[in-house]
Design a protein that fits this description.
alpha/beta; three-stranded antiparallel β-sheet; 13 helices; 13% strand; binds pyridoxal-5'-phosphate
Amino acid sequence: MMPVFTDHFGNASSIHWFGQHAKTLIDDARKHIAQLINAETSEVVFLSGGTEADNFAIRGIAGKGGHIITSTIEHHAVLHTCKDLEKQGVAVTWLPVSRDGLVDPEEVRKALRPDTVLITIMHANNEIGTVQPIEEIGKIAAEADVYFHSDGVQSTGKIPVDVKKLGVDLYSISAHKIHGPKGVGALFVKKGTMLKPLLTGGGHERNRRSGTENVAGIVGFGEAARLARVGLQGEMTRVRELRDQLESELKKRIELIHINGEKAPRLPNTSNIMVDFAEGEGLVISLDLKGVAVSTGSACSSGSLEPSHVLTAIGKTPDEAHGSLRVSLSSMTTSEDINYVVEILPGIVERLRELSPYYKKV
Ligand code: PLP
């Protein structure tokens, strides 16, 4: 990205040579994103991130009315967009999930109506990491001839993604979830999909997304996608082993802890740990003071006192939801990091539990 900030300052829409150089950099990045998800380059639309991608997909299809099918555990970028459309008269079916956080494809089929225009179900959940049966839902959507969007912000770069195999028409991605820069993302738009643009203007991105391209961000996103693809298989195994080690060691050393979504197919890097009789905020602050960055509920909504909508949707009480930690590992996480958390967390939990009037040592 540095050469783009300093030397290659052209506008990719300009005809002069430095504009065209910027365009080749964007084309190169587009190729890397397309390769990561097995799309055609012409099907990748750059925009400002996962939130915009979700808004574009949903409003672009359902902005004019009809019926949407979605789930109760979607990211707020989908949840609030559907709620907003609902207020404007679009009908929305909110599918519940199992206690492990999975949508039942048969429920999707049953929810179909003659006026259904869109199914939007996330690929992997950002709080508990559960991976939804997207391929099965894709088949149902295709049989019913209904557009299918999936929020792939958490899954891309963490597990193999093949948009053709998944059967999606629209798929959201965000650069900062794969070690790319913040403020840039992409929407996969299957060839032939009729999508009303969110922004009107100069007709950039094949008339899908107007606005001068964020060249440096896109270049960083492209490189992050390339690295994610090259390292994917090895990293999946390495990170899953670390995550499993973290969970099994913590279970041995701390009584009354549970892993949310443990029985479902999960992303290799996510662990949602419920600690009975300990306050989640207290755990986060104590770990932060020792240099460990984790969150409770979803980072996007931390600071709010509302219990996580995902944890309540899988049947947790507000108290249980407040006592949950979300731990995300990445390609930068080492076994030393895991050992450190395993060493310090039992003491932190014990201290916090001493403050709980309900906790009695067993
Ligand atoms: N969708 C999911 C599943 C996410 O986890 C996030 C971010 O945390 C988003 C959408 C929003 O992406 P962005 O931060 O790029 O707007």
